[in-house]
Write a structure and sequence with these properties.
The chain has eight helices and seven strands.
């Protein structure tokens, strides 16, 4: 016996749609876990607890970045990472066909960062533009370039969730100036003044006069050793100046009269006066003949006086 279903076909279709919708409710972490290239991005969603907020949404678009494109976030504080990743969660459903049909080929998109109330100005918005070369994304902050290119669609559940890959992470300007920007390094110290000699002047500026030779300064003796005093320079002996022999003079007093010589008696030699050696030749310094005659006459007078005193 066959049992007939008591549920009418329209009611069955409605229940089937509801069951399908509840069964296909998305879980972003489970969806990205199938792609190893997005393990870092998936880990950020779990660590910052953004995954739970994403799973509550009805229509949402995730701009996922692969592991290599997330290198600018390496070492950033957790609160900064949360703000940046929440900027990659668009609060609407966008797939590739919808992006290619944007009005005027551009749009400003609100994100989960804007909904958090922690953004300033246009930091919580994204600009998307459809160019002839493709679709590009960037921060809506004034003056920011669109540098993240749409790569491909990873997964989509129409009008609920769309996961798109972009080429690089988007960081709005002014987001992490206070907490993540590296402190400027102190300026390098100036090198100590070198003792290198001053450069020599060019040949055109050299003076023709030779430079004076600096006096040599004696090097100090090594410590611990006494330096013997240098002997005084030898004093050269000055040869005595030749003195002219003084002519002997007769003793003072009256000169006795010259006695006549006694015939036949030889005249004995009297004592030689001191200072006039006998037979010494006349000095070369006597330049006048009268002086020599006077000396001889004095000698003769002395001899005669001595003879007279003996007789």
């Amino acid at each position: 016996m066959h049992l007939k279903s008591s549920i009418a076909p329209p009611t069955f279709l409605l229940l089937s749609f509801l069951l399908f919708s509840s069964a296909t409710a998305f879980n972003i972490t489970q969806l990205l876990a199938q792609y190893s290239d997005f393990s870092t991005f998936n880990g950020y969603l779990s660590d910052t607890q953004l995954a739970a907020d994403i799973n509550k949404r009805q229509s949402i678009t995730i701009l996922a970045v692969d592991n290599g494109g997330l290198s600018p976030l390496s070492g950033k504080p957790k609160d900064v990472i949360k703000k940046v990743v929440s900027l990659h969660v668009v609060l609407d459903y966008f797939d590739i066909p919808k992006l290619q049909k944007l009005p005027n080929n551009t749009a400003t998109l609100p994100t989960l960062f804007q909904a958090s109330g922690e953004s300033t100005g246009q930091q919580g918005f994204l600009n998307v533009t459809h160019l002839s070369t493709g679709v590009v994304f960037g921060s809506a902050v004034h003056g920011t370039t669109l540098g993240a290119n749409l790569v491909k669609s990873i997964a989509s559940q129409p009008y609920n969730i769309s996961v798109l890959q972009i080429s690089t992470v988007i960081i709005p300007s002014g987001l992490d100036n206070s907490s993540t920007s590296p402190s400027p390094s102190p300026p390098p110290r100036p090198p100590p003044p070198s003792s290198a000699p001053a450069p020599e002047p060019s040949p055109n500026n050299k003076s023709l006069a030779p430079a004076p030779t600096p006096a040599k300064t004696p090097s100090p003796p090594p410590p611990g050793k006494a330096t013997p005093p240098s002997p005084p320079p030898p004093v050269k002996a000055t040869p005595p100046s030749p003195t002219k022999p003084m002519p002997s003079r007769p003793p003072l007093g009256p000169v006795p009269a010259k006695a006549p010589a006694i015939p036949g008696r030889p005249i004995a030699d009297g004592p030689t006066p001191v200072g006039s050696p006998r037979g010494s030749p006349p000095s070369d310094d006597d330049s006048s003949a009268p002086a020599t005659v006077g000396i001889h006459l004095a000698v003769v007078i002395m001899l005669v006086s001595s003879l007279l005193s003996f007789t």
